[in-house]
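Hi V.,

Quick status before I head out on leave. The structure for the redesign project is tokenized and pasted below; the design run finished overnight.
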């Protein structure tokens, strides 16, 4: 089973319920499918980190 993992920068943790990292199962043991799912989650994660950097006071939700 493959997982997506991404560290959350210290200054953005308040917007992610204090979490230090995002860890989500890719729900597959197939490498090619895992790569595709990883790419999707990475793009989503990057967008949410950008949103958190520009946010004033809200929590960003991950799956």
């Amino acid at each position: 089973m493959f997982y997506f993992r991404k560290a959350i920068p210290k200054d953005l943790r308040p917007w992610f319920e204090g979490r230090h990292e995002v860890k989500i199962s890719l729900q597959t043991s197939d490498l090619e499918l895992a790569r595709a799912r990883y790419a999707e989650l990475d793009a989503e994660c990057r967008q949410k980190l950008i949103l958190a950097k520009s946010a004033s006071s809200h929590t960003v939700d991950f799956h």
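Above is the designed sequence. The longest helix spans residues 31-54.

G. will cover questions while I'm gone.

Best,
W.
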